[in-house]
Amino acid sequence: MTMPNKLLRITEDGTLLYTMRLTVRAECPMHLEDFPMDAHACPLKFGSYAYTKSEVIYEWTRDPAYSVEVAEDGSRLNQYDLMGQTVDSGIVQSSTGG
Prior knowledge:
Blueprint: E1 2-3, E2 6-10, E3 16-20
Antiparallel strand pairs: 1-2, 2-3
């Protein structure tokens, strides 16, 4: 079953694979007290509101070190460089469940 930017695949062993393509435009607050020698960390966290940890697993489709791409012509602030990234995972307990 396919819908725009979504795919549901059922394998022979009954495993369901549901994928969804997302494009995220995120903002990063900057504190410029040490400009021009400052550095900024811009965390981007995502998760599931509707599914529990036993129902959904987020997994990079390729090496996490190369999972973030910044197009040279897509950056509005060309004087800044992406120095690196880290990938981490965790489980957060919410008031609505696990």
